[in-house]
Amino acid sequence: MSAILSIVVPFCNVEHYLDECLESIATQTLSDIEVFLVDDGSTDNSAVIAKARVARDSRFQLIQQENRGPGLARNAGLDRVAGRYLTFADGDDIVPAGAYEALVGSLESTGSDLACGAVRRLSAGKEVPSWLHDKALPPAVRRTHVRHHPQLLRDRTVWNKVYRRSFWESRGFRFPAGIYEDVALAVAAHVHAETVDVLDDVVYLWRRRDRGELSTTQNRAELGNLRARFDALEELRAVVAAHLPELLPGLDTQILEADVMIAVEAVTSMQQDEREAALDRVRPFLAAAGVDQLMALPVADRVKLYLARHRRVDALREVFGLEREGLPTVKGVRKGVFRPKLYLTYPFFGDRKVKVPARLYEVDEELELHTRVDRACWEEGGLVIEGFAYIDRLEMTDPGSSELRLELRNAKTADVIELTSERAARPDVTARAGHAAVCYDWSGFRARINFGDRLLRRPGNWELWVTVESHGLQRSSRISGPVHGHVDVWLDSDLRMRVPPRTRGQRFQIRMSTPVAVVDRAVAGASGFELSCRIGSRSGGAAEVVLSGAGDLSIPVELDAEGAFDVVIPYESLLRDPHGDDPRWEIVVAAGGASSRLASPDGVAARWITPSGAELAVEVTRYGFLVATWRETRPIVDTLEWDAEGRLVLSGEHVQDARPERLLVCRRRSTETRTVPLEWEGLASTRGWRWRSCRRRAASSRWRAGCGISSWRSRTGWSPSGWGPRRSARCRSITSRERTTSA
Fold this sequence. Notes:
Blueprint: E1 5-11, H1 18-26, E2 33-40, H2 46-56, E3 60-65, H3 70-78, E4 85-88, H4 99-110, E5 114-123, E6 126-129, E7 141-144, E8 161-164, H5 165-170, H6 183-192, E9 196-208, H7 223-243, H8 248-267, H9 272-288, H10 291-295, H11 299-309, H12 313-324, E10 332-335, E11 341-344, E12 369-379, E13 382-391, E14 402-409, E15 416-419, E16 421-424, H13 427-433, E17 444-449, E18 460-470, E19 473-478, E20 487-492, E21 495-499, E22 509-513, E23 517-524, E24 528-535, E25 541-548, E26 553-559, E27 564-570, H14 571-574, E28 584-591, E29 594-599, E30 606-609, E31 614-620, E32 626-632, E33 636-642, E34 648-653, E35 662-667, E36 673-677, E37 679-685, E38 688-694, E39 704-705, E40 712-715, E41 728-734, E42 740-742
Parallel strand pairs: 1-2, 1-4, 2-3, 5-9, 23-29, 38-40, 39-41
Antiparallel strand pairs: 4-8, 5-6, 5-8, 7-9, 10-11, 12-13, 13-17, 14-15, 14-18, 16-17, 18-19, 18-22, 20-21, 21-22, 23-24, 24-27, 25-26, 25-28, 28-29, 28-32, 30-31, 31-32, 33-34, 34-40, 35-36, 35-41, 37-38, 41-42
Helix pairs in contact: 6-7, 7-8, 7-9, 8-9, 8-11
């Protein structure tokens, strides 16, 4: 019986990568596969690697031929396939686990002719976005077509897809000789398919080679490579013109902004004869570009294409050189008397010798709004937010040069709350932007939210929006994060306000909630953790406390008339290992068919030392929910305060016999450290030793201490004025043997 999926893998001289590629295919979650390895005349050890795979896995077969190119190598594999579905992979790339199962599963459920998925590049062992595919795929959609999503014309590779073989063979698809052999064919499949499935899943890792021969795309600046690229593009245009002519203008714009721009940059490094040949090859594409198509491109691309069309290669070199320097002198200017327009002072603007038309410098949509909240804190009963917002290349030299408005928006209810803000000087934003000719010194803002508005006291998520008006241009956008640190405040016993340190999409967000289940007290009792809790929405009746991760332990409880209850979580039930690698248990209260995680307004915590010396604890996560956890014993901070001399005092307890000699404070994301001596207090007790340390203020100590040691007392020399968003640190205790542990 034939396999469900046939995979064709051409390869040539990829010995450094082939085994990893074949292993990624062999270990796919879809195991019912047949794989045809086509050796296209390799002169290295690639064939040896392929033969070894064939010898130990009967699903793999090897075909060997003289070097004829990847297209004809794929055709040799196509002559052997028998699966219901068909796909391709190149021998230097990787197929993520589960990719084929997702693609085939989609086709099985929808009946579409092909399914495609997202692509990431593999560069120096790291996954990075693929410039070729980032704009090619719409959000996940089933049974669609390129006429509904024209961006699929950018999807010009065959290896991020699975095809229905009957569809492939009914169209008579075969690969041409040469390179860029899949460009026109991949688009032709989109055009001729009845329907197409688009998946969000990353289904292919496309390697940028750092060893061995360079790939076709890595040699894209060579003249022969450019000619082959534009030959393939002409074939692609012919397919679209014959079957979907209404998509041609959009396709031509895509070719201009991607393929032609690659050629334009390449000619700046060519010798004259090659340069003239390359410009001759792209001339039809440059000549066909109308004004509307040019104006749809960024100013930089318009200017480059104009210079290339008029063969001003020296000017092109100058433009690319300035771009490598970050175009520090480019800024937006408004010119004109009766109908002034905004222009970008890109190179050769107003240059009477080069004579680039001024219209090509007109700018509007491409100037982006840059925003960020870089500080959020709770001060004197209100939330203080500080950040910046500016439109790229438009100056903000003083508060009167622009207008900046802030508002909170609730995406679910569409409610809007306008905020009162004040402008703030931010010369650091100008410095970081790197635009020498543009000043953003007054892009800063500071707003204070007091939560008196009744809308804000309802549960929901609020996003911060900013509107900036500058030089006659207006931009609005959600403000991005992440915020360094987070804010978690209970406005009263039943209303909680949180600003998480980061949210999906890096957006700044204020989350208001009224937790259903709240824990007010937690202590380590004789036989278990004793919790005092309440459910605000219920009065009386039965409920249960469920610990997920410890064998789904369930403890029945009775609610009083106010929804309060006490529960004891036995230590012995927590001594069993939880499921998975995370040694924690979520604590959930279930009542009346609904469930809710236990939240804490006061950061309650308790711990118990097991007979074996391990530590069991209930504590509040950074998101305010109670969990039970076990770990090795460690120093614990129980008080943190500033003394009269401005020194930070850390006190706590330590249950082990060993008594650390000092604290080691480690700055995050750095190798910098500081040590603080410890002074012990009293003798060992059932709770362990108590000790203290003291250190005088350092002359230049801009640190943020987020640490401590148990049953001890420590005085550091760090002033609160030295705290900053990027100055966080951890403390470690150090024994005489120099062993360390986090506090």
